[in-house]
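New to this. Explain the following:
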Amino acid sequence: MSLNSFLVALTIVALAQGASLGQDERVRYDNYSVYKVRFETQEQRNLLRKLAEGRENFRIWYEANDELHLMITPGALSDFNSEIHRTNISAKMFISNVQELIDSEEDANLRASRDGSFGWKKYNTLDEIYAWLDEILANYPAVTESFALGQSYEGRTIRGIKISYKSNNPGVFIESNIHANEWITSATATWLINEFLTSTDELVRNLAESHDWYIVPVLNVDGFVYAHEKNRMWRKTRQPSNISSCIGVDPNRNYDSRWMENEGASSDPCSEFYGGPHPFSEPEIQAMADFVGSIKDKINVLLAFHSYSQLLLSPYGHTNEEFPPNYDDLMAVAKAYGDAVERLPYGTVYRYGSVAEILYFATGATNDWAYEQGVEIAYTIEFRDTGRYGFILPPVQIIPNAEEALIGITALLDKCEELGYLKPKNTQ
């Protein structure tokens, strides 16, 4: 069977067995599996990417320079195995039923919600996060300040919180949940906010009070709500396309930073990596850029929280043959984060490098855009895990992951201080 015939056949199967259900029902992923697929040649990689263009049958969960993680519909599995065997590509299943993980997550969330309190034994909804932010702002008015980036496509406010204990601190900006299905990111961001305000630990107090923190718990608010209410695996924004029935843009490919260069994003509106019809087409990303642009002289470090794969990714995403002028410093800072996290009892290992160097070409992303704005320390941080649970990290891992982030960020900022990156950029 030719590749084209293979894809046509899978599309027909998908129409009968796709994940999407009725308009008012939640999307289910019964017996959807996830495979770790290793490749050795560019031809094999291109084949896998071609398969993933049939979004109803395959979805890329993770991509590196030698492997992909692919979620596969049950109806497409047999033909997929045949194609993998024919092309001599190595594939190993590590999640047999995605819906089972989603069900387990929902059960844990329900159990933790019974007392009605906000906490980190579950993944909180946008409404819960915003109500909690209001409580935090009311309880700590002397050191907290609310800010709004702007409005989403569906009219939701994109909120953030500034924590500042004294003037002339270096600024750290944290962007979280730009991808709607990466729930561990907003859970970690809110846990950090709580620690910065409530912890009595000397290390945390020094970290909190020696920096100004600008934290956006959920950037992609529309997608995040949709992921909670309709489709746990939803990644993109929710703005309709003018040229397709497919909805949404990958917001982390939508910044005006080498937009669509070197195949760093997809021009297909149905792709998970669609860069949009033009840079800043998504109001969420335009709002983020406007806000960060207005305070960039106050920001020394920008961290974009993502999941999964346990990585620190620095610029650039458009090339693996050119590196930022301060690349050696970026690697030293990233190493400090990884070493600190690995020393914890969990023993979690983080790798680091530029986006294009250890993953793939990815353009229009936050870290590259921020770097171009003069934020010399800008990373994408990919949290736990490396594939056992992927995006559906059990709630029991929220606090361990957040503890790792706290220790890692502490070491990262200590190294930044040592290298001279935390000098105040503007008198506040």
